[in-house]
Amino acid sequence: MRPVRVDTDSIELGVSGTIARNSPCPKVQEGVVVKGNILLGILLGLFIVPAAASAGSFPPSETVLPATTRAWLSISDPQGFRASFDRTQYGQLLKDPVMKPFVESFREQLKNAGKQRLGKLGLTLEDLEKIPGGELALAAIEPTPGVLVSVLLVDTTDNEAETTALIEWITQRLIEQKATKLVDAAANAAGQTTFQLPPEPNAAVGSQRQVSFALAPSALVVGDNAAMVAQVLGTLKQGRKDNLSTLPAFQAMTARCGKQVPASADPLRWFVDPLGYAKVYQAANPPREKRKGPDYVAILGRQGFDAVKGAGGVVFFDDGSYEARHHTMVYAPPLEGRQPFAADRFDLAAQMMQFPNADSIVPPPWVPREVSSWVAMQWDLANAFNSAESLVDDVVGEKGVFDDVIASLKEDPDGPQIDVEQDLVACLGKRISVISDYATPIGTDSERLVIAIEATDPEKVAATVAKSMATDPDMQKIESGNHVIWEMIDRSSAIPKLEIETPGGAIAHADGGDEDDDAHRRRNRLREREEKLLPHSAVTVAHGHLLIASHRDFLERVLAANGGAESLASAPDYASVTVEMKRLFPSVTAMRSFGRAEESVRPTYEMLRQGSMPKSKSMMGQLLNGLLGDGKEGSVRTQKIDGSLLPDFELIRRYFGTVGLGMETVPEGWYLAGLALPRSQQEPEVARRPVTPVGR
Predict the structure, then answer these.
(1) Would you put residue 385 in left (φ > 0), alpha (ψ -120 to 50) or beta?
(2) What pTM does this model have?
(3) 104: part of which helix (H) or strand (E)?
(4) Angstrom distance (rounded) from CA 55 to CA 135
(5) For residue range 87-136, what is the model confidence (pLDDT) as tens digits?
(6) Res 599 pLDDT > 50
(7) Which residues, including other chains, have CB under 8 Å from residue 403's CB and lie 6 or more apart?
(8) CA distance 597 to 658
């Protein structure tokens, strides 16, 4: 039997990963970037405990845990869940002998990490190997404002002897760590034991660490707060009225996603209050060193994004039709008195979240057949632009920055003199597509990306782009067939000069005074906030779209696509996914995607194998560096996962099929569903990309 391998980062969460203290994004370890839930499934398959199913020794955990639960993960039948995973090609991948060295090494890495991360609960991951006999649930709870506690709830049916032995071992280990057993006659009589741990080095004065555990008939409750463990213990028989399942967000998730689970499936269920969890995690874990930059969690709250009340769903494997399937509900009902699909359903910058449904979302004929992935979504860009002012000002920390920069782009004699709203935004449609691929041989700069934004007036957009780019000394004009491409040279930057900034940086106009200096200072402050995610940007207008690429060679491939048999829409594997996605979304959608798992996973896989992920210049690589690094300029982080024992990718690529994802805007938020098809239903091989990057 294998231990539960849930990476809980100090078990202070209910879902994998942590929220960076000054970041809106979850912390992610290399290789755990879920592309169509492929890697998530593989990791779950590695470390979920097989255990005997039971009728349950306590009510469903969502009726036992309080309504102040901010994150929750539950597997009702770990044995069934693992068995279903083993039947998939991902399960077979992990059993392949070529993967054995890495699998054993990776388990050891997590085992060592687990000793540190679960240590505050007196547990290691392998301790949980033999005890689950039914539901296993993990929760992060906010019992009082700003306090975050964790609870692990395990149904130990038929494994009571193993559980008792585990408790004795934990007790001995805590004593060896010089933990102090607290005397509480009532708690001890109820089967609860609490230890006070010595303070951690450099811990704040007065900070306390506890490990509390309680044995009930066929149940184990473990937590880092004695009062919360006692609460859960007291509600195990009958549940509680103010429980997690009473939250409207949880009920919406259950209503949308629960009915999608076949009776024969054994799902993993999850729920999180995104902003609520991020806020309490910040409050409970103040940084030892103050990080520079804006506090995005606070900004999102001020800007109305707390309209998202919760997100949750189900994940299951081998349901008879698919390798994997997942359903997610993001609960964001309109504010009181607002209409569900209205542009003003939310306040301030949250009004950006306007994703109108469309009758059909398919790849245009110029999307090359052999790409790794394609995704397209509906987004009301005009509404997003009109809602951006308060967000930009809040991020920069100065009111009026957005308006000032927009005005300077139009009026500054040294700038492009364009009206961003009328010359650009008003000429764009509501369809945005992202095409991804990679160049070989795979290295730190291999990943390729093209962002395509629908243009309702392509000629005017092209003129605006030319006028903007011509004033920038870092852009060069290139003729490519019948197209004009503007490519970044010399320096790295974000998407060039279509941003709200003035070419020329801080060089004020010769006739300018203090007002001009102030305007340039504001523009510089805004520019300092930009993430340099596309260091080799190339821009053009073609195929009725504004095309923004990470690299010119990939942009030229898109420009050269002739449609027909060479287009993605004609590929058999795309057609197979489309048929199945139509079953999940029979009418309208706001987003659709298609991906070849082997091609989507391979760049990250090779970077891990080479130990080069921290040096990756891809958008994901830079995002990981920002989240996992020390924040110091020029600092290169250490790769968290040792991938040196991974086999040659050609030996395992047969285990990867195709994936699809869709999203529908619904009155109470957004409903998403995705699936994975096995390789046996797929085209055996697709045409290859250029062997070496062009012009690099």
Answers:
(1) alpha
(2) 0.85
(3) helix 100-117
(4) 9
(5) 999 999 999 999 999 988 887 776 665 444 455 566 665 677 678 889 99
(6) yes
(7) 389
(8) 5
- Token representation of residue 302: 């001020």
State the chain's maximal CA–CA distance in angstroms.
85
Say whether 499 sits in a helix, a strand or coil: coil
Structure tokens at 546: 């504004």
Find out whether 54 and 134 touch, Cβ atoms under 8 Å: yes
* Sequence letter at residue 408: S
What pLDDT is attached to residue 626?
55
β-bridge partners, 215: 220
Q: What is the identity of the amino acid at 380?
A: D
Distance CA 585, CA 521 (A): 49
Closest-CA residue to 537 (of 526, 553, 523)? 553
Residues 6+ apart with CB under 8 A from 100: none
Our CA angle for 139, 145, 151, nearest 5°, is 20
For residue 411, give the H/E element and its range: helix 401-411
Phi-psi sector, 55: left (phi>0), alpha (psi -120 to 50), beta:
alpha
Cβ contact 101:44 at 8 Å? no
- 504-528 confidence digits (pLDDT tens): 333 333 344 455 555 555 555 444 4
Q: Would you state the pLDDT for residue 117? A: 47
**At what angle are helices 514-528 and 401-411 packed, to 10 degrees?**
110
Tokens of residue 332, six digits: 């964001």
Give me 508's structure tokens.
Answer: 């004020």
Mean pLDDT, residues 560-577: 94
Torsion angle in degrees (nearest 10) through CA of 485, 381, 297, 10: -70
The answer to whether the beta carbons of residues 89 and 679 sit under 8 Å apart is yes
Other CB atoms closer than 10 Å to residue 471's CB: what's the count? 16
**DSSP line for 231-293:** HHHHTTTT--SSBGGGSHHHHHHHHHHGGGS-TT---EEEEE-HHHHHHHHHHHS--SSPPPS
Q: Are strands 310-317 and 324-331 parallel, antiparallel or unpaired?
A: antiparallel
Separation CA 593–CA 680 (nearest Å): 20
Q: How many CB atoms lie within 10 A of CB 8?
A: 24
- CA distance linking residue 544 with residue 457, whole number of Å: 8
According to the 3-state scheme, what is the secondary structure of 523-576? Answer: HHHHHHCCCCCCCCCEEEEECCEEEEECCHHHHHHHHHCCCHHHEHHHCHHHHH
Which tokens go with 220?
Answer: 């184990």
Where would I find the beta strands (DSSP E) of 32-185? 69-75, 136-141, 149-155, 180-181
Distance of CA 184 to the CA centre of its chain: 43
* Residue 543, both tokens: 């195929």
Q: What is the pLDDT of residue 623?
A: 58
Domain ranges of the chain: 38-272, 333-681
CB 266 within 8 A of CB 134: no
Residue 434 phi, psi (nearest 5): -130, 125
Please give the structure tokens belonging to residue 617: 């210049």
Determine contact, residues 647/24, Cβ cutoff 8 Å.
no
Is residue 42 within 8 A of residue 94, CB to CB? The reply is yes
Beta strands 475-480 and 483-488, pairing class: antiparallel
